[in-house]
Amino acid sequence: MAKRAAPEVNAGSMADIAFLLLIFFLVTTTIETDTGINRKLPPIEDSQEDVIIKQKNIFTVLLNNKDQLMVEENLMELKDLRKAAVEFLDNGGIPKGQEGYCDYCHGKRSPSSSDNPDKAIISLKNERETSYKMYVSVQNELVAAYNELRDKRAQSLYGKSFTEMQADYDNVNWVGNKTKLKEQLEKIKVEYPQKLSEVQ
Amino acid sequence: MGKFKKKKGGELPAISTASLPDIVFMLLFFFMVATVMRENTLMIKNNLPYADQVEKLDKKDLVMYIYAGKPSEQYKQYGTEARIQLNDKFAGVEDIAAFIAAERASKREELVPFLTTALKVDSDANMGLIGDIKQELRKVNALKINYTTRKGNVFDKH
Question: CATH number of B50-151: 3.30.420.270, 3.40.50.10810, 3.40.50.410, 2.40.10.350?
């Protein structure tokens, strides 16, 4: 009887499989990028001009050393902060017909709250013992309030949320008029400017 | 009865290893692409806080990192207070100005205005330290900062 050697497995296509896998991983993995909340610090100015701001245009947020939150003289839970900030920013207290009237605001138009989103300032003060975690959470909620208003405004003007528009703007593959999109983004940023001041 | 003769042992066909280099290269390429080089060895606990209104921090070459937090287990001799880490060393608040100057000097001049300082601070640190860092950054006019966070809901218990 003739001795039969087992046939050798053909490994010629192994390299192809290997390259296929390589390309698959190359395409699917995204290199992790850091994310975070961007802020701009105020420059140190020698000549400190005192700008007079009406008390009703300031939304005071205080964080004490026990991580408790005080908003406009009242103790508040973190989860209520976003809503309170939105109400304050979107108030539009100047009556119709007068200068500075905010025709796109949907707030209560209470005369004791902010005049218009351009005048409204959020002032955040923390103590040395406040935890970083709480501080970031508060910052996050305040940014969220601005984003909520901008989203709403963009939705009514352009039928798309501000966040989506911004994502489109950053997307290299987006097909459309980027200069026009930038103008639209700028318009919304002007209507709801982020005025967040931190007290040292 | 030769028909039922058993095959002799030790005649297993040799497995071809011709594709081994391919597999190895594949793994090599994969790891080369997917790994992010950590520039600094962390000497502190760095449990970043969570936030969901975040922006991406791309252009890695335009970011300066300042770490802060409690010294980790191996570096207990440095105490339990939250500390600043710049590059591979613990540093004091007064070293920040020099650090920023060095970072700026290492970049092309036209890119200097676009530099961002990323604060990678442990969630347990307190704001006193961060206030000091911010004050120091204002002094050297490095005004663009980023509180680096992880993506997640603020209200969830992590």
Answer: 3.30.420.270
Asked if B97 is an interface residue toward chain A (Cβ–Cβ < 8 A), one would say no
Give the residue among B70, B66, B63, B65 at the shortest CA–CA distance from B93.
Answer: B66
B 23-42 residues with CB < 8 A to A = 23, 25-26, 29-30, 33-34, 36
pLDDT of res. A5:
79
Model ipTM value:
0.74
Sheet strands (E) in chain B: 50-51, 55-56, 63-69, 83-86, 89-91, 116-121, 144-151
Q: Which residues of chain B make contact with A34, given a CB cutoff of 8 A?
A: 56-57, 63, 118, 146, 148
Distance of alpha carbon B114 from alpha carbon B117, whole angstroms: 10
- Residue B158 is predicted with a pLDDT of 60
Domain ranges of chain A: 55-199
Tokens at A129, concatenated: 């013992």
The residue among B34 and A108 whose pLDDT is bigger is A108
- Interchain pair A39, B145: CB under 8 A: yes
Residues of B in contact with A125 (CB under 8 A): none
Which residue in the block uniquely carries the two structure tokens 């205080």? A62
pLDDT, residue A171, reads 81
